[in-house]
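pasting for the record
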Amino acid sequence: MSTIKRLQRLTGENSPKQKKSPRADEISELRRRIEAVTSRRPAGTQKAAPGLYKSHLQLQDVIRGEEVANAFGKFLIVHAHYAGSSKHGSRSIREMTALDMKAAAILANNADIASFDCKDALFLDTETTGLAGGTGTFAFLIGLGWFVDDTFRTQQLFARDFSEEKACLHFLLEVAQEKGFLVTYNGKTFDVGLLAARFILNRLPDGLTAMPNLDLLHPARRLFGHRLENNRLATMEKDIIGFHRYGDIPGSEIPQRYFDWLRYNDPHLLADVFEHNRLDVVSMAALSIHLAELLDSKPDIVRNDHADLLAASRLLADRGDSSGARSLLEALSKSDDPHAAYEARKSLSLMHKRHGRWVEAIQIWETMLLCNAGNFFAVEEMAKYLEHRRRDFQKAIQIINQALSLPNPRTALERDTLLYRLRRLKTRAGCLNEE
């Protein structure tokens, strides 16, 4: 007797004489969940009809690759080659080969990467049988990419069934040994950890975890998170490098495509998966050059979003490159965008303040006050300086009183902050006079 039948018998749900129980809705929901579990599919999905995928085509008829054999078995490799003149969104392949390694090291927060050449980079992305990870998750497709002169090449290692995993992993190790560092997108959290587990399960050495890893997700989130709806690579492609995918398979559907391939052996199921993975690898190369260019001390003010450049200056400062951050802010302070220029001057003045360059900081605050005597930021910073550095309480009181007398719109918090500072200054000035 099936689980559903047992449940019906226990609850009396099939009895025509029994009135509907107050818990009938709960029982119906429980039945739905059990049906989902017993069918081994997520609730709400339907199992595709077997006839939908029947095909007499061979894998090589759809996926143009070559079978490779090594000591651990066979698997399929699919190659692609991009000439220097090829475009990916707004970027050309030739541009990507000019990756600034100092900037790459800052993006990765790993100084070791600065000692490499961009041709030492191994771009890595996997497609797996599950998105949650764990020892039961298997990377059936491993996408790789690297630069050769002014071109970009990709290789996709495909395990046609579970028995080919070890051969794929061994080949991956051989490729990784020839490279210096990894470039991934969320690879530190997912891809590299997953592959490390698969190496252990297949009794192979882990040749990836120790490699320096430029995980593009983290700097991309810091530089673009202020204006993007999410941090997915597809969003970065569309909004940052101007590359649009059409008919792309959602990542959530990829695991089921592989299971269906194992069941029906229809190569059409995999064509979209290979395309998705290949584009991910190329997009990482395009995104890496865009991220690195934002850290340039002489940025292209016209080409780049000014808010992105402000975020880049903060990243540089946080990573200890105060000189690069200062150069970037000085360039932005001359921007035609009033908001960007103002924010750059604010950040630049605070940087001068932190490093004890008081003359430069005061010059910026005084310029701000000449333009607007009620500027809250400049008033507060000048008052702090006069109180703590110069002990000129009267002048600080004068600046705050002037700001409070102006009809400038300000928040209640700003007004309360200035009033609190004013009371303290008057108290200190009074104590000084009594002395």
